[in-house]
């Protein structure tokens, strides 16, 4: 539990740092220190053996000043209120940094989904939606998949909500199967958005891909897809890892072969390179380090050993506040999570937009629109970073805070009400 409290406390530290260079009023900062709404619900589920279990679920609508809240639902045995609040806070700033008209939300259920049958999982998912139905909706709060949830679970949830309101409502959930209103391009959007930013960085720094090395920590959906994109474009991906092991080959790894072996066996192809630890991977002398696994992997304990020139965060919160200061002093550019991995929520916005209009785009249209958003906001954040002499992360939060301030201050601040009659 203390870890989760630290995550939320760290999230609020980012707010403090950003407020120093933001044009937002102090009242905006004050309002963003706590969520607008936090729900805790009980979900009774009849198990396959006839017994009853009651699960605890949460949904946080952190801010909706710029549009309906947006954020995933995770099924995990370690879900806590503090974690959910921190994730909803991050989503608030992530949506604002890329300029999409959403606020921030997040949800979760305390459960080990691997221990449930498919039928039990469906009953749990539908029960959760019944419990929070009055607090979500296409114009209120729009959930999506997260840890241990997927398009099938989103399909159940959308179906249950539609049954409750008596009309088909695909816009209540994103990350759905394409046949049920999901968007083409959503499957690889997180990695693609990060790679779109790498393209802009490549042009800005004059990088030649075939001369640059990349290490990717986390060979899951986002990390594996990013590694494939990088390998395809000629980057030398010298290291990858999963939760069990890490591989290093200074000559470059065969990423398609690794992806195929991982899909077939659930493990990395050990013959591809020498085995190292995840900790050693983070300290390799590469041009680009991509943390794509879990939070808090680069801390004040190991930040001084990081030799990468650029860090691009595909994971949420992989670098602590203390580590940020060390990396900035060492001249390491960190492209923060709220910008680097915002491709997923951007295409979720595209999905919601298509659901609202009833008109659906091709994959190429989705990818083109995503590239335009990621490139535009990367340059906005980089410009602010240079102008203010602050890390990219602080600039990204300040950029978001400026936008949130415009919305939250639209109905007035003390500057107006303090004048009296």
Please provide a written account of the structure.
With 421 residues, this protein is of the alpha/beta class. The chain is built from 15 helices and twelve strands. The protein has a seven-stranded mixed sheet with strand order 9-8-7-6-10-11-12. Strand 6, helix 7 and strand 7 form a beta-alpha-beta unit. Helix 6 crosses helix 13. The longest helix is centred in the C-terminal third of the chain and has 26 residues. It is globular and about 60 Å long. The relative contact order is 0.14. The N terminus is likely disordered.
Radius of gyration: 21 Å
SS field, number of helical segments: 15
Q: SSE order, as H and E?
A: HHEEEHEHEHHEHEEHEHEEHEHHHHH
Indicate the overall shape: globular
Q: Round the mean pLDDT to the nearest integer and report it.
A: 93
The largest sheet has its strands arranged as 9-8-7-6-10-11-12
Instruction: Characterize the main sheet.
Output: 7 strands, mixed
Give the CA-CA distance, first to last residue. Answer: 49 Å
Number of strands: 12
Q: Which parts are unreliable, with pLDDT below 50 for 5 consecutive residues or more?
A: 1-5
Helix content: 40-55%
Q: Decide which structural class fits the backbone.
A: alpha/beta
Strand content of the residues, in percent?
A: 15-25%
């Amino acid at each position: 539990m203390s870890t989760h409290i630290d995550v939320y406390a760290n999230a609020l530290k980012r707010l403090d740092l950003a407020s120093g260079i933001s044009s937002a009023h102090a009242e905006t900062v004050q309002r963003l220190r706590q969520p607008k709404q936090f729900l805790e619900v009980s979900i009774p589920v009849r198990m396959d053996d006839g017994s009853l279990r009651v699960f605890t679920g949460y949904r946080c609508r952190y801010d909706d000043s710029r549009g309906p809240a947006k954020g995933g639902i995770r099924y995990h045995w370690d879900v806590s209120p503090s974690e959910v609040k921190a994730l909803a806070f991050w989503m608030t700033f992530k949506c604002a940094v890329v300029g999409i008209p959403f606020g921030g939300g997040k949800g979760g259920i305390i459960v080990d989904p691997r221990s449930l049958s498919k039928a039990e999982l469906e009953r749990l998912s539908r029960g959760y939606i019944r419990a929070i139905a009055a607090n979500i909706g296409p114009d209120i709060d729009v959930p999506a998949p997260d840890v241990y949830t997927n398009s099938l679970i989103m399909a159940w949830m959308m179906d249950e909500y539609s049954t409750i309101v008596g009309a088909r409502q695909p816009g209540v959930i994103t990350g759905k199967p394409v046949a049920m209103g999901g968007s083409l391009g959503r499957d690889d959007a997180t990695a693609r958005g990060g790679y779109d930013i790498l393209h802009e960085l490549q042009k800005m720094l004059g990088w030649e891909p075939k001369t640059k090395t990349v290490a990717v920590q986390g060979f899951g959906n986002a990390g594996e897809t990013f590694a494939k994109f990088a390998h395809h474009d000629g980057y030398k991906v010298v290291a990858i890892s999963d939760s069990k092991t890490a591989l290093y080959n200074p000559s470059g790894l065969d990423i398609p072969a690794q992806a195929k072996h991982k899909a077939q066996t659930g493990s990395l192809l050990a013959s591809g390179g020498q085995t190292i630890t995840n900790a050693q991977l983070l300290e390799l002398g590469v041009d680009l380090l991509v943390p794509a696994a879990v939070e808090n992997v680069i801390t004040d304990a190991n930040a001084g050993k990081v030799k990468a020139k650029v860090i691009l965060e595909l994971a949420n919160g992989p670098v602590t506040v203390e580590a940020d200061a060390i990396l900035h002093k060492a001249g390491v550019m960190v492209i923060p999570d709220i910008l680097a991995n915002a491709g997923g929520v951007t295409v979720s916005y595209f999905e919601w937009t298509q659901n609202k209009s009833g008109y659906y785009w091709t994959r190429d249209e989705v990818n083109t629109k995503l590239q335009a958003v990621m490139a535009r906001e990367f340059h906005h954040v980089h410009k602010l970073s240079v102008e203010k002499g602050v890390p990219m992360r602080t600039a990204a939060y300040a950029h978001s805070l400026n936008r949130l301030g415009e919305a939250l201050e639209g109905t007035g601040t003390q500057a107006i009400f303090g004048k009296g009659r």
